[in-house]
Design brief:
By secondary structure, the protein is α/β, with parallel strands linked by helices. The protein contains three helices and nine strands. The structure holds zinc ion.
Length: about 150
């Protein structure tokens, strides 16, 4: 699975992760999936109602509002994003326990007080998380998560 992520959305997730620090930010990703490629169009930031600092739980009202907006645009909610303050850019055991939708994308932003935000994507499939490639779109130019230019 490849995720086409506009640069502006990547910057916004990083900014939300920084603003929420040391708590987790969270939100939903509006887009479209076509075969092995998912395109992100819009982010829907959500309130994190988890009582613990190292968890996230998207407020149900925000989830429904995001779903409604996506449908109005003829899109779907293709995934979610959240941050791991002082953690790794990979899903935790809690994330796995909370995952359920087959093919749903999980974007995780890890950061600490000083280091740059690292962003990684995973797709939930058959009860596990598989790594997904993030392709950042800067204008018309696409750059893969490994930094290589892509035609
Ligand atoms: Zn997590």
């Amino acid at each position: 699975m490849r995720l086409l992520l506009p640069e502006a959305l990547r910057v916004r997730i990083e900014s939300e992760a920084r603003t929420s620090f040391p708590r987790e930010c969270c939100g939903l990703i509006e887009g479209l999936r076509e075969g092995d490629v998912a395109r992100a169009f819009t982010l829907h930031p959500a309130r994190n109602i988890a009582p613990d600092a190292d968890r996230f739980e998207i407020a149900p009202d925000d989830h429904f509002a995001a779903l409604r907006r996506a449908r109005e645009h003829g899109h779907a909610l293709i995934g979610c994003y959240h941050s791991h303050p002082n953690g790794e850019a990979k899903p935790s055991a809690h994330d796995l326990a909370g995952a359920g939708e087959e093919g749903f994308l999980w974007l995780i932003a890890s950061l600490d007080a000083k280091a740059p935000v690292r962003l990684a994507a995973f797709v939930y499939s058959a009860a596990v998380f598989l790594p997904a490639e993030i392709i950042c779109a800067v204008g018309a130019d696409l750059v893969t998560s490994s930094g290589k230019a892509r035609n």
